[in-house]
Give the backbone structure.
Amino acid sequence: MTMIPEEISTSIQDAESVILLTHVHPDGDAVGSMLGCAGILKSLGKKVFCYLEEPVPYLYRFLPDCETVNSSLTELSSFVNENKNVIGISLDCGDCDRLGKNKDIFLRIEPFLVIDHHRSHKDFGMHRWVDPDRSSTGEMVYELALHLQAGISYNCAYNLYVAISTDTGSFRYDSTTSRTLRIAADLLDIGVCPDEISDYIHNNFTLERIRLLEMVLGTLSLHAYNQLAVIHVTGKMFEKSGALPEDVEGFVDFPRSITSVKIAAFVKEGKDGSISVSLRAKGEHDVAEIAKAFGGGGHRNAAGFSFTDKTAEQVHQIVTDELTRMFERSS
Amino acid sequence: MTMIPEEISTSIQDAESVILLTHVHPDGDAVGSMLGCAGILKSLGKKVFCYLEEPVPYLYRFLPDCETVNSSLTELSSFVNENKNVIGISLDCGDCDRLGKNKDIFLRIEPFLVIDHHRSHKDFGMHRWVDPDRSSTGEMVYELALHLQAGISYNCAYNLYVAISTDTGSFRYDSTTSRTLRIAADLLDIGVCPDEISDYIHNNFTLERIRLLEMVLGTLSLHAYNQLAVIHVTGKMFEKSGALPEDVEGFVDFPRSITSVKIAAFVKEGKDGSISVSLRAKGEHDVAEIAKAFGGGGHRNAAGFSFTDKTAEQVHQIVTDELTRMFERSS
């Protein structure tokens, strides 16, 4: 087992009450590791306040105890006033700016601990446990539980399993290690059913999403000897299908799934008419560099940038032209 | 560890040469467990002949050592004549009819061993290790290797990982146990990269497949208060898209992924104009019973049946009408 920084475990052991925070636009690892950590801390007799600026996204409302997540700053302030030895823990947040618009309030909590696995993590907080070799923050919270000799309830195991399985794409990403799989095995031994969780995550879509997918697949174009695939979605398609902005989650995986494709681009028209572009790379291609040239950023395999005053169709063409030229230069 | 029947391990230990067989239309578990088992037996100094009636499907040609699979009965017969103590092992085959058109030749091999995990397994062969609580035959072959104290090479681990991960839908199906995940962890420790294998399995599709998917999604209809979803594919769609019959693999998961859907049906027109229907159920619905009423069969969650002298559109309507009535009766 990895050594957990002593300041982290001592601070938690000494605390009577804990405020848990995670990043805005939370994903499965953010919500799952927060709720999992809350369960562990409660089993140790601590009072816990899970704060999230926005409501839990509908995709993750199936998580047990998710109704305990609170968005009220007034109630947060009462929690601080009514309890002693209050500490703060930020989970799965790689940058304090992503704690949301009230980050300055949170960062004043002392001690403020940080548990995170992002490779691009920008240090903040008083004590940090940052390990980019971990598949997920859920994995780290599980080991924190073992370290603190805390009980892991069924709900807690469920939340940590969601955290780990979503952040590893069902154990498919290269961040998945044998340790990840052994932790997942321990969680199954506590009673978690992988098929039940998978149904919530992978079979929980709307008809509108399928209708939108059909339209978006109709925009697919291939270029540069089929190494580049581009798709787009327009405001009109959202209107016609009745789908929501979050329904396009995962659409970029379709062009990416074509054998010959090295880079897939997904051009999205937002509600305000602005255009965002998501790039996904396979193999050695670095889309962070490409995104930078367009004024954006991201990771080597996944990056993005945005446009204003252009239509989705125009940006589809611009991205096609620029990336085709890039492939021609590099060939 | 589960007890492996003594006749199985003794027969293998005593053999000098082994013929490995699996079911026709082989999936990842069939090819992966066969190649994995071949590697294990070779590490024990045995001569091995992997027989398959048809060539390895293109989806699984990335498996290491897959070029050793042989479809020649003449060469199989030479192998029998040139070697001593030849035994046969059938892997992942639930019914001797699925050994293919030469099954009678194989079943004469003595001893003929059977290793399988199908719940619907129909006994055949001389000695059997059949365990329906296993996620995959790959999982059983791994434990056979431990039991026989055989070496597990990288190639062997790779093949067994493909077997296990494909047969559990990336560890999502309810057949996935903590033992499954711990075995997968052991295989990662041998050097297997889950993202590399996942790319071959999930990002190895053709443009033609995406074009066909778009057409098939256009046929989606929902019925019985959105509990029933039906899609179909016609010969014309195959023609227009240029896709192959195997490209529809996984299409039924799209209607199945809609939250409200309890039963998804996929109507497929074959090359000869015959129509086959795949049914997939979520939750408590039993599609094996429905398939039986249409003269077909299968499992509780996945079943099928076929039609002749009808078009795909007609069968789409028949299935819709019949299943809607069924939902009405049960409500």
